[in-house]
Amino acid sequence: MEQLAQAVAERVVTIVMDAIDIDAILERVDVDALVRRVDVDGVVSRVDVDGLIDRVDVEKIIDRVDVQKIIERVDVKDVVDRVDIDALLEQTELGSIIARSTTGVASEVLDVVRAQGVGLDDFFARWVNRILRRSKETLPQGPPTLVGPEATARLATPELTTGAQ
Amino acid sequence: MATLARTRPIEGRQGHYAGAVSRLAAFAADVGASWGLFTLGAAALTFSVQLVSGGHFSPTNHPLGSLIAIVIWEFFYFAYQWALSGKTIGMALLGIRVVRTDGSPVGARQAIVRTLTLPFSFLLFGLGFLGILTNRDRHALHDRFAGTAVVYSWDARAARLRWLARKDPEGAPSPDSA
Q: Across chain A, what does the average pLDDT equal?
């Protein structure tokens, strides 16, 4: 008798379940309200995070990461540009290391003489350019193999410089 | 050094055409160096001749010989150094060097032609040097003959790093504020 009741019950449940539209019921359920009632902290506190991490194969995950692709997406030039060299030298031992390895009265004097020379070169070049009514941007900076093709390409394509003047 | 603190070194000029002042200063330094070395050599020669012969010897008593010796010495002073490293003593001091017009190192031929044609730039009150100021690629007359150019060779960025490393972080003014 009991077995009969069990069989009937299972059959009834199956028929009822087939008849119910689960999707329609779920659409009527306010999931947000349901989640709000869940004690997430309580659930998380019951999770053994250490055990979970121990079960994770980090090496395998790293192996699946395409590091080269990530590096290619990083704008290294932009990162370097954002580095404040002055601050770096002032705040680290790097400055004193460079100073110890390269300083000397002779090099200091040379730096001064050369810097003054370049400054005066620029001064005279500016005035000559003004007199000759030409822009510095239209002039080649140096030989092609030393300054790169873009700096000397101005010679070949003067029309490109017109807009930059 | 206070002067450097007021003068911010110009960065990134390696390979750029050198200007007239740097080139003129380098040439003046070379004239001084070559004459100084020649005088030392002449003194050593005089001393050696007097030591060996026991008699009196002075190069000033042989003006033609002295003139020829000076011309040969000046030729070797410039040509040898340019052919060897592209720079003379004066150019090394000012941080400039001679290269071919395409930027490659000069060879013996360019060095010799440049040395031989250098006097032509002095003609007509140094008109041949005017090109350093007026030409687009700052070529003097002897550069045109030899197919050479003069460029900056000193590392201004390294000089700036040295300056930053040397300066007193609390007391020294920033070059940006100069």
A: 78
Nearest to B149 among A103, A128, A143 (CB): A143
ipTM over 0.85: no
3-state secondary structure of B86: coil
pLDDT of B6 above 80: no
DSSP 3-state helix, strand, coil percentages of chain A (rounded to 5)? 80, 0, 20
Q: Shortest Cα distance from B25 to chain A (angstroms)? A: 8
Residues of chain A in contact with residue B152, where contact means CB-CB under 8 angstroms, are 118
Q: Do A140 and B154 touch (CB under 8 A)?
A: no
pLDDT for B150: 94
Q: Which amino acid is at A138?
A: T
Contacts 24+ apart (CB under 8 A), B135-140: B136/A139, B136/A140, B136/A155, B137/A140, B137/B17, B137/B101, B138/B17, B138/B18, B138/B19, B138/B20, B140/B23
Q: Using one digit for the tens of pLDDT, what is the confidence trace for A107-158?
A: 778 888 888 898 899 999 999 999 988 888 888 888 888 887 655 555 444 4
Tell me how close the Cα of B103 comes to any Cα of chain A, in angstroms: 5
Amino acid at residue number A63: D
